[in-house]
Every structure is written in structure tokens, then in C-alpha cells.
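pasting input
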Amino acid sequence: MSLLIIVLIVCIPLLFLAWLLPEKWQMFPIAISTAVFLGFVSPASLVILTTSSLITYYILNTHGSKTAATMVAVVLVSSILLIFKLQSELNFNITKNKILPLGISYYSFRQIHYAMETYKRKLPAHSILEYYCYLFFLPTILIGPINLFQPFVKDLRKRRWNSVLFSQGLERILYGMVKINVIGNYLLTYKLNLFCTENAASQVWLTTYLQVFKFTANAYVQFAGYSDVAVGLSILFGFKIIENFNFPFLAKNIADFWKRWHISLSSWCREYVFFPFLSITRNARISIIISMIVLGIWHEISIRYLLWGILHALAINIWHRYESTALHKKLSKYPVFQNVTGVIVTLNFVMLSFVLISENSLSQSFNLLQTLLFLKR
Amino acid sequence: MYNLLTKVMAKNYANILMFLWYLFLLFLVFRYSFIDSGRFKYLGY
């Protein structure tokens, strides 16, 4: 049974508790059951998340110097994330069996967000229980989005039963499941794959192009579907969390694409990597490259994701350079032409960049790129 | 979609159509839930 189905089943009794218990006890069952769920599915995840979250909270809320406390917390959380990510990619074990804690990429970035906002003194007064509820919120713990602390606490304190919102949440979960199962699994993974296999010998370029389209579209549909389920479940519990996708394949340029694709992660990188590095280096291009490298290796610490991040950074920098040229200004007089061309170019660039991460090795990716770019017969 | 339906037909018919639409989607979800999505099953990490 997939983790998503387990989460959905666990959420059914929790919903009753979250709305029927006396108001001040309503959030306990969610946080506690998330801990129990993690304990059953991946005990290591429970130990790591509990320990790191308690240490982070203690350091940030008891230490006198906010700067030192934030630095220690960020270094601690980043180190834990790096060690486990490197362990899963490279050949070394820090535990008896190789493990990658569930949802570690998401909750590490949530903890860093919390630390940075504490440093900026932008957080409302809150208890450790509210912090614990934020990190141990079942709908978002495994599959994101990287939701923010401030709106979460606001909803936690002001949530009220609303039957219209509740039905919207159910509808959202259903649409998410349709995206995952019907469009992603059936149409793209099964049907399109069948078509490509049958025609691979006679139509090499077309089937290669369709395979690349399949990977890109499937990545979007699956991830957007999981995000829909997470947003829908959060609505059922009375929380409005950040949207993760906004029709990314309709992006008119690559900068626009990153405002529509995995919005919570790109916003996180803009806020906590791009702006700090911009203030240090005073160079937007370098800051973009560093942000996109962080964004790339967040997915997986490997050469292919590093190259993927750098490629997108270069594309964003080229786009910003192009924006100030006379040609762009001239073409702005024809918005329909510019928009249609922009959408086609951006989508194809994104698909080509996904070749780097869709294959198991870089040599396979380059082979595929050679076929797509007519460099190989 | 519901708002659109209520503009072109009576609310009762719109409710029935929406109910049937959800049933159809549920059927599709269960019908194709057996297919594995390959590497995307690791999204939880």
C-alpha cells in the first residue's frame, strides 16, 4: 500500500478528533498521530525529526544572541540533511542499514525557515506545542509543500468549521488522485509508454521526444497531484497552505516558470539563498546561480542535479539579459506572438533540461540529447 | 464547474450532475490505481 493511501486512511479518524474534541485539545491528535505514524513507517525519521526540532527550538528560544543561535540551528539542520542525503547517494553508512528519513528534505527546510524568521523577529509569540504541530502536520510532512510558520499558526488559532471549505478540500483530494492515478499512472506512464515502445523502431526521434515529454509531464502531474492531496487534506483540517503549482507549462519564460513550478521551494530559495547572497555579493547573476544550485541539490546530491540547477540558472540569467535588448522591446509590440513563442521555447527548454535528471547516468542523458538535437542517427 | 452548471440549469440538476461527475472520477481513480508510477513513488523522500 502506498504511503499516500496510508496517510489518507490515518486522516479519517483524525478529522473527527480535530473537529469534535474541545477546542484547545483539537490539534494534539494530529501531532501525536503523525509521530505514531512516523514511528511505525520509519522510526529513524521520528527520532531525527523529534531530536532536531527540539534542539532547534531550544537553541533559538533560549540563547541570548539571535545571530549565533540562528547560525547554529541552520548549520545543525543543514548538516543532518546533507549527511543523510550524501549517505543515500554515496557508499558510506552512518547507521547499520542505509536510511533516508521520510520527508527529511521538507522538514529540514521548514526548520531553516523557522530559524531564519526567528532571526528576523517576524514570528508571533508561540508555544513549543504550536511549533511541534507545525513540523508534525501529517498532510504536509511527507510530500510538502514547504508551508510557512506564520500562516500556519494564524490558522491554528482561528480555524473554524466551514462546510463549504470542507467540501472544497474533498474535491481537491479527488482531483489530486485523478492527476496521480488517471493522468500520471495510466495515460502518461502506461498508455504513452506503450505507444513509444510500439513505435520505437520506426519513429526514433518522435518516440524519444515523447519519452522526454512523458517524463516531464509525469513529474508535473504526479507532484501536482500529491500537492493537491496535501492542500486538500490541510483544508479539511481547517488550514490554508501555500499552493505549489500554477500551470507551469504555460510559463512565458524560464523566470516565469520558476514562479509557477514547485512554488514553495523556489520561494524558499529566493527568500533564504538568493536575497542573502545578493546582499553579500551585490551580484544578481551569481546569486541566481547559487540559489539554483541549492534548489537542484535539494532534490538529490549528484552531478546531474547540480548540472540541472546550473543550466536553469544560466537560462534565467540569459533571459534577464535578453529582456533588456532591443529585440525584446521590438517583439513586445506583438504580445500574442511573443507569448506563444515564449511558452513553446520555455516548455521545450524545460523538457530538454529534464533529460539530465530522467536517465540513470549522464552518458545516457547525453545520448538522448544527441538524438533529440539531430546529432545522432 | 458547479457555478457554471447552475447558470445553465436548475440547481437540482446541477447537484445531480456534480454527484455523477465525482462518482465517475472516483471510479477512474480506483480503476487505474494498480499502475505503478515508477520513480515517482519515491516522492515522499
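fyi Chain B touches chain A at residues 22, 25-26, 28-29, 32-33, 35-38, 40-41, 43-45 (CB under 8 Å).
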